[in-house]
Each structure stands twice: as C-alpha cells, then as structure tokens.
Amino acid sequence: MKAVVCTQGELTVQEVDRPEPGAGQILIKVLRTGICGSDLHATKDAAELNALMLESGYTTAIRPEQQVVLGHEFIGEVVSYGPQTRGRWPAGTTVTALPILHTEAGMHLTGFDIHAAGGYAEYTLVEEALTFPVPDGVSPDKAAFTEPLTVARHAVRRSGISKKRPAVVIGCGPIGLAVILMLKATGVTTVIASDPSPGRRELAARCGADVVVDPRVRSPWDALTLKDPVNSTPELLAFALTMTRAVRRIPFASLEKIFFGAERLGRSPSGPVVFECAGVPGIIDHIVADAPLRTLVAVVGMCTEVDKFRPAVALSKEIDLRFVFGYDPAEFSQTLGMIASGKVDPSPLHTATVGLDGVAQAFNDLGDPERHAKILIDPRR
C-alpha cells in the first residue's frame, strides 16, 4: 500500500506493507485523515516530542531516525478483523476510532509510534473496542473531525464552565476554533475570541464566537463585561464588606451558611473561564497578569518550550490553572453523536483536501494562518 513516511523530518510517499490486524484489532481502509499541529511538531522535532513523552512514561514515541506513518485523526471502512474480535460491523462499514493500539510491545499512540502506523496511508489498524460506527448521512469530511473536536469537548468539560459564565478563547488555530464550537454547543452564552490573524478571526466568528478581537488593537479583557466584583482587589473587598453588613442586619442569619451556600451554588464572585489555545511561551503569564480575579485558565495549547509565570500574581488573584490533554472513550462517542445530530458543524475548519502526494506541501501551507485551518488527506484522491 501507499503511505506517507516521516524520517528525519522528511515526508515521502512510499510503498509499504499493508498491516495485518492482530488480536482485538480491525484493519480499515482510510477515507480521511486530518493533519494536526502535533503532526507538524513531530516532523520538525521528533527528538523533543520523544523526550516529552518519556517524562509521562511513554517509551516508544517517534524518534527522528525512525520511519513512522503519522496521522491520528482518521475515519475509514472496515476491511477485516484480527483474532479475538467480535466482528461487530460488516465489511464496508464506515467507522472512526480512538488512536490507540495495543500490541505485544504495549500500548501505543497511533501515528506517533513505529508500533502503530497512522492514517497517512491507504490502510491502518484500530482497536475494535475503541471503534465507533459513523452514523448514516454523516459525510467523511465531517466525521474526520471527531478526534480533534473531542479534544475540545474534553477541555470544555474539564473547565467546568457554566452556560452563564463568560469564556475567553486565546488563539484561534484549529484547536481554539474547535473549543469555540464546543462552547457554543454546550450553551455558553458569551464567547470572546482573540487572535491577531484576520483569517482566523473570521473563522472564529463563523464558529459562533460572540465577540472577536484583534489583540493588537483591543484587549479581550476590555470586551468582557462582568457583574461580579472581580475586576480588582478593592472591588472584591468592598463586596465582602457590603455582603457582611447586609447579612448581619438579618436576625439569626448565619454568615457561614449564606457565604458557603452561595459558593456551593456557584454564586460566589468569579471571573471568566479562559481557554489558552495559543501554546506559545509567555502567554500564561500574560493571562495571569491581565485576567480578572478568580479566573479559571484551561491550558489547551501545547507549549513545548520552558516557560515561566509569576505565582505570586496568580496567588493574589486566586487564578485557577487547569491543564487539559486528550479525552476518554465516552467523550469520543459523545462528540461523534454531536456531529451526527448537527449540534456541532466542523465545516468552517475544513479548508482543503489533498492526496498522499500533497501532504508535504500541505505541511508547508499550514504555516500560513490566512490560508488554512485544517487540511484533510484523502488517500485515494
């Protein structure tokens, strides 16, 4: 079969052996695969990615000298089953799957490991237990967004954001745009998006952002209207004083019950939820410095460089930092259902489709934020 092979940062189309499904696995014919920013990073600096994965206990991640087939955002058609499978779906059924493969060598992340070739190929392997049929009527171009949209779904769920709490999305690349889609699908009423790229700001608006700003012209914090007294420490202190005076005017009222009860009901003063989707050094410190008090920051963007922020500033403002990564099978299934029902439409993110021989050029083209958000690969194009 044909596949795009990555070695020493170079992408070439080669003839490779078609994989054979092992225990619990399905062989699928790839219909679409998305190019992810992490694929670009793996190509540019596989050694750095390998070192990062080693720190989390993952020992078989891609190394520069290896021949690895990238691609973890894919859909395909069932071709055949390996041993110890149930044969859940007939051949030809369109499916998508979590990019995880179990072999005798252990657990592997599909597309980042020589033990688990990815979807930049005509065929790939998936785990039957982690495979989901694509509902009828869902186009391959939309179904291929299940994996990246699930990353955004997980980020939104992990943030714990409520519908009335405003959201600020910093960085409107593919993951930031996916977060905007998921925030609006969840019912969040106010989403402010910030990006210096005119093209990405336009896509953010198409994805449902209520306010879109160019941070070089207007701060996203200036676009934020908060009823809670969290714009400054004196404002919060004044609120505490006013509330205490009011409670003590009520006979037999319990200060503890009222304050702690409001906290349990989510009525305590709080800032917005910020989704950091830029992944560049310095952005976390920038957010901590400028965000209102009691802001929750969900860090979604992957910054692989050493970074720093001032803990004392975060402490004095009671900023919550929450780092998010990946997702679980239930979220994957839920996201596929949201795409199928039309609750989430990833079409604005899809800016081009290429064949295997166009992948190398697509990697170059994705460096221009004015031209592309997400490029899909059709191996038979």
From TrEMBL:
<feature type="domain" description="Alcohol dehydrogenase-like C-terminal">
    <location>
        <begin position="174"/>
        <end position="233"/>
    </location>
</feature>
<dbReference type="InterPro" id="IPR013154">
    <property type="entry name" value="ADH-like_N"/>
</dbReference>
<dbReference type="InterPro" id="IPR013149">
    <property type="entry name" value="ADH-like_C"/>
</dbReference>
<protein>
    <submittedName>
        <fullName>Zinc-binding dehydrogenase</fullName>
    </submittedName>
</protein>
<keyword id="KW-0560">Oxidoreductase</keyword>
<dbReference type="Pfam" id="PF00107">
    <property type="entry name" value="ADH_zinc_N"/>
</dbReference>
<dbReference type="Pfam" id="PF08240">
    <property type="entry name" value="ADH_N"/>
</dbReference>
<dbReference type="InterPro" id="IPR036291">
    <property type="entry name" value="NAD(P)-bd_dom_sf"/>
</dbReference>
<dbReference type="GO" id="GO:0016491">
    <property type="term" value="F:oxidoreductase activity"/>
</dbReference>
<dbReference type="InterPro" id="IPR011032">
    <property type="entry name" value="GroES-like_sf"/>
</dbReference>
<feature type="domain" description="Alcohol dehydrogenase-like N-terminal">
    <location>
        <begin position="22"/>
        <end position="136"/>
    </location>
</feature>
